[in-house]
Amino acid sequence: MKPLSTTLSVLALAFFVLFRASGLAQYESDDRTLSPYFFVKSDDPAIDQLPLKSTSALVNIAGVIADVTATQVYKNEGKRPIEAIYIFPASTRAAVYGMKMTIGERTITAKIKKKDEALQEYEQAKKEGKSASLLEQHRPNVFQMNVANIMPGDEIKVELKYNELLVPTERIYEFVYPTVVGPRYSNLKSATAPASERWVQNPYLHQAEAPTYSFDILVNIAAGLPIQKIICPSHKVGVRYSGNTNAVITLDQSEEKGGNRDFILRYQLAGGQIESGFLLYQGEKENFFLLMLQPPKHVTTAQIPGREYIFIVDVSGSMHGFPLDVSKQLLRNLISNLRPSDQFNVLLFSGGSTLLSEKSLPAADYNITRAIDMIDHQQGGGGTELLPALRRALALPRSEGFSRTVVMVTDGYVAVEEQAFDLIRNNLGNANMFAFGIGSSVNRHIIEGMAHVGMGEPFVITKSEEAGTKAEAFRRMIQSPLLTQIRIDFDGFDTYAVEPKTTPDMLADRPVIVFGKWRGKHKGTITLSGIAGNKPYREVIDVSTVKPIPSHAALRYLWARYRIMLLSDYNMLRPDDERIREITDLGIAYNLLTAYTSFVAVDSGVRNKDGKSVTVNQPLPLPEGVSDYAVGSSAFKSTSALSPLSELFSPTAKKETAQEAVTDRIEKKHKDSSIRIDKIVVKGGLSRDMVQMVLEQEVQKFLNCTQNQKVTGKLIVKLTLNAEGIVNTVTIISNRTGVKPIEHCIINELKKFRFPAAQDSNPSTVTVTLLFL
User: Fold this and answer.
1) 686 closest CA partner among 641, 630, 726, 746
2) Residue 199 pLDDT
3) Does residue 687 share a domain with residue 649?
4) DSSP structural state of residue 483
């Protein structure tokens, strides 16, 4: 350890001299990447580095709609004006429609503006010495709050309001209040990364350290139907009932520091009932409706129509190895458990595609064996032509009276997201879409996006042992389709902007939801039709019997949020100006926070006359159960996930030499370790920093190979990687541990590793030296 410590210390001192000569900016513009880091508290008493004092939430659930008021309290207990920055999460389904800021007796209501305009107004207010707050969205579930010019002794309260639709699964309602954003990694260069990605550079507390702020939540449930059971698996709570349809849930005092894990509340209505039906809202300019189609409680075999499954399996080069092995395991599990009355087909694709049969086959033993044998012979190779495969699968002839489900299995490494989304969305009436992402670093944008537009569910499998449980969860969800070939006809009820465009099959454990707008009077009928079992199904709703209710105003936000979600899925990787304009227009029109609109509140009075303040990034706790390795395990590197050098050598940092700072971090991080990375040599298209980050995240897995033996010495291993970061071969160059059996285990572990794709699309070789101590 000592030679490594000495080397790193010399490097740190050299960087220190460089900083003194040319400033920090030169280093950061070199090759430092965006990265979270560990929080180091300053000894300067004039600066309050923990300005967030509390977060709380008031949740009112009425029927299927939750209205949430989240409150953040900031207080400056230091002696200098500060700007506080806080990164926090929200539900991906949240429609954030309001914000206000309170300073003493003054309350300022925030305005929704285009993102760049809101930021400009906030920065101008900060410069002029005015108190201001800015709420921005970095991801659909990651927000940032900036509060400027918090004066010494100030307490500033910021409230944001959002709605969320609660959709029961297996007849259980679940409300989740996310509490903390986990650390994220990015390979973008710090100096050139766009402002929208800089939130990744945020300080974190060490594992098991309690949040520095308090947490509280109160939930009121007005279910509309008798409540049978309420549970909170995440926190200790108290439940008080008011009649049989209302309940109040309060957080136990012992959970004051419980803001390091999501608050999860589940409840079930008596008899397994579900609050359903037809909701109307009549606004000044637009009217909205929400229709929920609910399955019956008891499912009999006669009610279940014939089922047909089309399995589309990616066998391209990027699936070689672990992803394809897990895909085979998953498909064997799914296909082997089909009923004899089911039908199925398998389509394998890479550069081209291969079908098991030109039409779906009965799930007889012979056909199942044939399909499994076809899959087992795949090794992975070629391109990833997902779109032609999807088109071919959706165009297959359909058996009359069968409910079709399409199952996509892929790592998602394609660039045809928007075409795939369009194709699925326009074929919802023909099939449901479920997506399985296989691999340690799948393209979640397309996996989740296909599920969103396909009204299905995304499943991501990162470990082989998850294949069985995810397959079982999928089977439970789709095993009882009650209604297929669904049609919704509006007669005399003037509707438009209906989402989704077509309606998927109704599954036994969750409802199908339809949003839309309407004009004129609430009259006419809505007819639901389809095939239930082997019989036609028809239900007619008389619109005139349902009155618009002012309390259903949330429908306007929920409709707009659903539309924004679909557009955002398209925009994740390749922003399109037209879609950006549509999202922006929706945000402005419906007063909603989006990726392109922000809330800004500015106090009129000048409170900080010289306009100077210290910016403080509120440190976040690591989510419960997450180790320090999530932030980083290296002591010092250009992509370090520990405190950046600007923090180590800042005027407000602890008074220690560069050598002491680096040595302390090495000893603290590695004092209990028995295996370390000594040397890495990379040739080819992949950067050394990215290789080092992956290896250091996974290095402890090699301890499993020692089988609790005391192993010492050095092991040198060579890996060859393809352009997509897949490990092709692993070779032991030198084994000086004296323990020959660990080689096979080390090779197997390394073959499971997944590295980032090379920037220049060239393969790479990696030689790594492991020290067993």
Assistant:
1) 726
2) 85
3) no
4) B
Residues 719 and 639 in one domain: no
- Quick check: 556 and 283 in contact, CB under 8 A? yes
Specify whether the CB–CB gap between 28 and 190 falls below 8 A: yes
Whole-number Å distance between alpha carbons of 256 and 136 = 27
pLDDT tens track for 692-710: 767 876 776 777 777 667 7
Residue environment code for 539-572, b if the CB has 16+ CB neighbours within 10 A, otherwise e: eebebeeeebeeebbbbbbbbbbbbbbbbbbbbb
Domain of residue 690, residue span: 673-773
pLDDT band at 402 (very low <50, low <70, confident <90, very high): confident
Is residue 274 assigned to a domain?
no
The residue type found at 244 is: N
322-349 mean pLDDT: 86
- pTM for this prediction: 0.66
The number of beta carbons lying within 10 Å of the beta carbon of residue 671 is 8
Tell me the C-alpha distance between 764 and 756, whole Å: 11
> What is the chain's mean pLDDT, rounded?
80
In three-state secondary structure terms, 445 is helix
User: Is residue 106 a part of any domain in this protein?
Assistant: no
Both 415 and 454 in a single domain? yes
Tally of residues, the chain: 773
Contact by Cβ (8 Å): 163, 67: yes
Q: First-to-last CA distance in the chain? A: 9
Q: Are residues 639 and 712 in the same domain?
A: no
Question: Looking at the predicted structure, is the pLDDT value of residue 535 above 70?
Answer: yes
Same domain, 755 and 649: no
In a domain, 350, yes or no: yes
Q: Which helix (H) or strand (E) holds 745?
A: helix 742-751
Specify whether the CB–CB gap between 209 and 622 falls below 8 A.
yes
Give the list of residues 6+ apart from residue 6 with CB closer than 8 angstroms, or none: none
Q: So what's the pLDDT on residue 118? A: 97
pLDDT, mean of residues 158-162 = 97
* Among the listed residues 287, 276, 97, 118, the one whose alpha carbon sits nearest the alpha carbon of residue 195: 118
**Looking at per-residue confidence, does 507 or 309 come out higher?**
309
Given a cut of 80, whether residue 610 has pLDDT beyond it is yes
Q: Quick one: 366 and 435 in the same domain? A: yes
d(CA 101, CA 159): 6
**Going along 15-81, which residue ranges are E strands?**
37-38, 52-62, 65-75
What Å distances lie between residue 193 and 198, 275, 280, CA to CA? 7, 46, 45
> Same structural domain for residues 376 and 325?
yes
Three-point CA angle 335, 336, 337, nearest 5°: 90
Q: Which two tokens stand for residue 1?
A: 């350890």
Residue 457: pLDDT above 70?
yes
Rg (CA), the chain: 28
pLDDT at residue 338 is higher than 50:
yes
Q: Give me the DSSP letters along 632-691.
A: ---SS-TT-SS--HHHHTSTTS-S--HHHHHHHHHHHHHTT-SEEEEEEEEEESS-HHHH
Residue 374 lies in a domain: yes
Which of 478, 512, 542 terminates a domain? The answer is 478
Q: Are residues 635 and 743 in the same domain?
A: no
What pLDDT is recorded for position 659?
35
% pLDDT > 70, the chain: 80
Q: Are 398 and 421 in contact (CB under 8 A)?
A: no
- The residue among 431, 451, 478 that closes a domain is 478
pLDDT digits (tens, 9 = 90+) for 646-703: 333 333 333 333 333 333 433 333 344 478 888 888 888 777 767 876 787 677 677 7
Give exposure, 614-627, as e/b (b: 16+ Cβ within 10 Å). Answer: bebbbbbbbbeebe
Interval 235-262: pLDDT, tens:
999 999 998 999 999 999 999 999 998 8
Domain tally, the chain: 3
C-alpha to C-alpha distance for 418 and 657, rounded to whole angstroms: 53
